């Protein structure tokens, strides 16, 4: 279990060290970016861009397909290192979240899947990047101990000094 959090803390610390710009709003080429998935494919992420935030055009359909599992609930953050990072749900019945990165929102590189090392977790869904006012980077996600139909609880991971503080609820 500690191995997963160490890897998450390492990734989060690297992202934190790279800077704190949130989202793709800072990219002059695509002021607004939206990622999505469709029911036609459980394992492909589409990327759309907009100049005004109201009308989105496809930038890259099937831009990212993970090496295994599915991609659901993609959340993208842009970092000052020039990369976009996505965190996503990897399966209907597992306790992992996936990570990938891209320089252009079109070609993505798989980084890794990380197991959430908390006892009795059966499902980890809907991870989201979040940058706090102090610049700290968080991944907020929902956890269940009762399968996909169980009650999901929001949970946050945040880099401090590795290892990451595990199991903190948002706002604590």
Question: Overview of this structure, please?
Answer:
The chain has 172 residues and is mainly beta. The chain has one domain (2-168): Tachylectin-2, Chain A, CATH 2.115.10.20. The protein has 1 helix and 11 strands. It has one helix at 2-18; strands spanning 32-38, 41-50, 57-64, 72-78, 84-89, 96-102, 108-115, 123-131, 137-144, 153-158, 165-168. Strands 4-5-6-7 form a 4-stranded antiparallel β-sheet, covered by helices on one side. The longest helix is centred in the N-terminal third of the chain and has 17 residues, at 2-18. It is globular. The protein starts with a helix and ends with a strand. 32% of the residues are buried. The model is unreliable at 1-28 and 159-172 (pLDDT under 50).
Regions with pLDDT < 50 over 5+ consecutive residues? 1-28, 159-172
* Order of H and E elements: HEEEEEEEEEEE
Strand count: 11
Q: What is the C-level CATH assignment?
A: Mainly Beta
Total count of domains: 1
Largest sheet: 4 strands, antiparallel
Q: Number of DSSP helices?
A: 1
Structural class: mainly beta
Fraction of helical residues: under 10%
The CATH topology annotation reads as Tachylectin-2, Chain A
CATH H-level name... which superfamily? Glycosyl hydrolase domain, family 43
Strand content range: over 45%
Give average pLDDT, whole number. 76
CATH architecture: 5 Propeller
User: So what's the overall shape?
Assistant: globular
Give the neighbour order of strands across the main sheet: 4-5-6-7
Integer-rounded radius of gyration: 16 Å
